[in-house]
Write a structure and sequence with these properties.
Elements (H helix, E strand, L loop, with lengths): L1 H67 L4 E9 L7 E4 L12 E3 L4 E8 L4 E5 L6 E6 L5 E9 L2 E8 L9 E4 L11 E9 L6 E8 L8 E5 L8
Antiparallel strand pairs: 1-2, 1-12, 2-5, 3-4, 3-12, 4-5, 6-7, 6-9, 7-8, 8-11, 9-10, 10-11
Length: 232
């Protein structure tokens, strides 16, 4: 009877083995999916941690910069950007209810960012120094030479206007505000000379300048709150 019993039991054992095998495989698939989900979750948390660390670094830099600013300041946060390739403006979360006013100078942790050009009750629009319509009086920190820096429409390049060939200027020179417009207080860093080019027959040099402020990337900024009597 043993051979017959073995033949009879073989299909049952085969089905039992197949069921256990399929069950183990399904368990492995579910476990693998759960692990993949957990890995994705951990990666997203790691990215968030990196983002928070970067933001903390920027805030510390802004705090250090605010301590070097002699004037009274108002902290603000960027809440939007103009989606226009020909205009460089950003929106901030401070309006005239917080003391913001048209012409107010704006800084970030590394340099002059721009100036307020429009205000509402709880928000304002800031024109960046890189905008092609923006001009700012500056002076050369090394020699005291004064000139006007204009935006070119590029966030990474500006131009120093009317620089005579006889002016002592070179790559690496730092440009700061000169306060000749009675708007930006003197001494704040604006840009660094990237290149000085001379064209034969031209009385003026072509001076390219890289802005020091993190244009288009700054999230937390400072508004210089000048006394009302000193505002333009």
């Amino acid at each position: 009877m043993t051979p017959i019993q073995m033949v009879v039991n073989t299909p049952k054992q085969a089905f039992t083995w197949a069921g256990e095998h399929l069950g183990s495989r399904e368990n492995l698939v579910r476990e693998s999916q759960a692990l993949q989900s957990e890995i994705l979750l951990l990666r997203s948390r790691l990215q968030k941690l990196d983002s928070l660390q970067a933001e903390n670094t920027r805030l510390r830099e802004l705090l250090d910069a605010s301590q070097r600013v002699e004037e009274k300041i108002v902290m603000a946060e960027v809440i939007g950007f103009d989606q226009n390739a020909y205009s460089h403006k950003l929106m901030i979360d401070k309006g005239f209810s917080s003391g913001a006013y048209v012409g107010q100078p704006v800084l970030d942790a590394t340099g002059v960012l721009g100036q307020v050009v429009e205000t509402a009750a709880y928000s304002s629009r800031v024109l960046l120094i890189a905008d092609a319509s923006h001009f700012i009086p500056v002076q050369l920190a090394r020699t005291g030479f004064r000139g006007v820096l204009r935006g070119t429409g590029s966030l990474t390049q500006m131009a120093l206007m009317s620089v005579s060939r006889t002016v002592d200027i070179k790559k690496g020179d730092v440009l700061t505000t000169s306060s000749l417009d009675n708007r930006f207080p003197s001494g704040y860093p604006v840009g660094v000379v990237k290149s000085v080019k001379y064209t034969q027959g031209d009385a003026y040099a072509d001076v390219d300048v890289v802005p020091l402020a993190q244009l288009g990337r700054s999230r937390h900024i400072m508004l210089i709150d000048k006394p009302e009597a000193e505002r333009e």
